[in-house]
Write a structure and sequence with these properties.
479 residues, four-stranded antiparallel sheet, alpha+beta, Helix Hairpins
Length: 479
């Protein structure tokens, strides 16, 4: 879930950033087009005035219409054209004031700006006549070429000049929270230094929530598939490890079985040997008729010795006397955690949550496979014992600690326990307190622990249960 939240959040941030970049690029593109169109118009106004000043159209007879008065029909944004002939004066004081700046800069100059009414005047001083244009801001906008729908576009466009503001496009009402885009640029005409201001407020509702939701579902599906694959992989590895331990356990169990059989057969074979030797001695006292009998007894004696030697060799092999030579440094804590991981399904099936009190590392001398088998046997015995008590009373505690030069593992359960009179026999081959048990697991574990230079003991676990203690020599620390 944490991985899903992190990846989903990262993807959502990427989608949101991409969408904001797309919206900003669109906003900046629209603002540039609007600026270019308005700049063309204000430059056009300068060109109209320059043409009038250059051509100096002559006035008409009384009652006629001057030629410059036909300009509003060609340029809808020009409301009126005023003319001052030589020797005359402008009727408006603002036009008179703009005459001098126009002469000084030898170009058009602003005479009056009234953004509240949406109008302004532009004057060009010339000889013999000067001209002034009254321009309507709203009509000046080339709406047919405008890049946005003025009524529905979220972009707000205004013209600003010396504290005055004229709204060309109202834009969408700004949301309470979000991202603010803004672009400012003066129109490309020195005589009409109006600043075009474009703003846009992007709200949370404009983010690509659909794509974000799709991404979240895709990530969830991918993580679920990955989780399922990991579970299958862990289960496969656990099964392989359990199979390996099972194979080793079967081989060792067969060895323990052979050792038990050797122990059981050695005594009758010894008795046969002693009896045949006695019979031979008794029969040897009567030599005349018993040559054949002595020969038979000699053969029986030879076969008995041979059987005894075979059984002895078998027992020496299965007792693995060289196990201590294969010992290496093993982290006992890691071996316990590995066994718990392998038996996790068994614990879950029985409703048992093992409690482990262990240091990070406890290095001991042991043969890894033998150590794994001992721990596996101890845990399986504890889980089988816990099946005999109610689920609410099942408890399995494991502890690791150091005692002198020994590393010690304790496995304590809250099962029915082992009767005190049976404790001395608990490690005998073929002895089991569980119905249907072979009685070889603990015997094998005790044999393996002894061959590793350690010990395995059992005792009661008050108030109820059993406690097994495995001791192994610690790895010597070099000076």
């Amino acid at each position: 879930m944490l991985a899903w939240c992190v990846i989903t959040a990262a993807g959502a941030l990427v989608f949101a950033r991409q969408e904001l970049l797309r919206l900003r690029e669109g906003f900046e593109t629209d603002a540039r087009i609007a600026h270019r169109l308005l700049s063309q118009r204000v430059v056009q106004h300068e060109a109209v005035l320059a043409t009038l000043a250059l051509l100096q159209p002559a006035g008409t007879a009384e009652g006629g219409t001057p030629p410059e008065q036909r300009l509003p029909s060609l340029y809808p944004q020009i409301l009126a054209v005023q003319r001052r002939d030589r020797g005359a004066d402008w009727p408006d004081a603002r036009l008179r004031a703009a005459e001098a700046p126009s002469q000084a800069q030898r170009g058009a100059a602003l005479a009056a700006v009234d953004f509240e009414l949406g109008r302004y005047q532009l004057l060009l001083a010339a000889e013999p006549a000067s001209f002034a244009l009254s321009i309507d801001l709203r009509t000046m906008v080339p709406w047919s070429e405008w890049p946005m729908a003025a009524d529905t576009s979220p972009v707000r466009l205004t013209l600003e000049h010396q504290g005055q503001r004229f709204v060309l496009q109202p834009g969408r009402p700004a949301p309470a929270a979000g991202w603010h885009f803004e672009a400012r640029k003066a129109l490309a005409a020195q005589s009409q230094p109006f600043e075009l201001v474009a703003t846009r407020q992007v709200g949370w509702a404009e983010l690509p929530w659909g794509r974000m939701a799709g991404w979240a579902l895709a990530v969830l599906a991918a993580l679920a598939a990955l989780r399922q694959w990991q579970r299958q992989r862990v289960a496969r590895r656990r099964a392989e490890e359990l199979l390996r331990l099972g194979q080793v356990a079967r081989l060792n169990t067969l060895g323990e079985l052979a050792a038990g059989m050797a122990h059981e057969l050695n005594q009758p074979l010894t008795a046969v040997l002693a009896n045949t030797q006695a019979a031979r001695r008794l029969l040897a006292e009567d030599p005349p008729e018993l040559d054949t009998a002595r020969q038979a007894m000699g053969q029986a004696e030879a076969q008995a010795k041979r059987a005894s030697d075979v059984v002895g060799r078998l027992r020496r092999v299965v007792e693995r006397p060289g196990l201590g030579d294969q010992a290496q440094t093993v982290n006992l804590a890691e071996a316990v955690r590995r066994a718990l991981h392998l038996l996790e399904p068994e614990c879950r099936r029985r409703g048992v949550t093992p409690e482990l009190d262990a240091p990070a590392a406890l290095p001991v001398r042991a043969e890894p496979v033998a150590l794994d088998q001992i721990i596996h046997n101890l845990l399986m015995n504890a889980l089988q014992a816990l099946e005999q008590v109610p689920p609410a009373e099942r408890r399995l505690a494991l502890g690791l600690q150091q005692h002198g030069q020994q590393g010690e593992l304790t496995v304590a359960d809250s099962g029915p326990g082992i009767p005190a009179e049976l404790l001395p026999r608990i490690f005998e081959p073929f002895f089991s307190t569980r119905e249907g048990g072979l009685g070889l697991g603990l015997s094998l574990s005790e044999t393996l622990a002894t061959n590793l230079g350690g010990a395995l003991t059992a005792q009661a676990n008050p108030p109820r249960g059993a406690l097994f203690r495995l001791s192994l020599p610690l790895q010597a620390t070099p000076a």
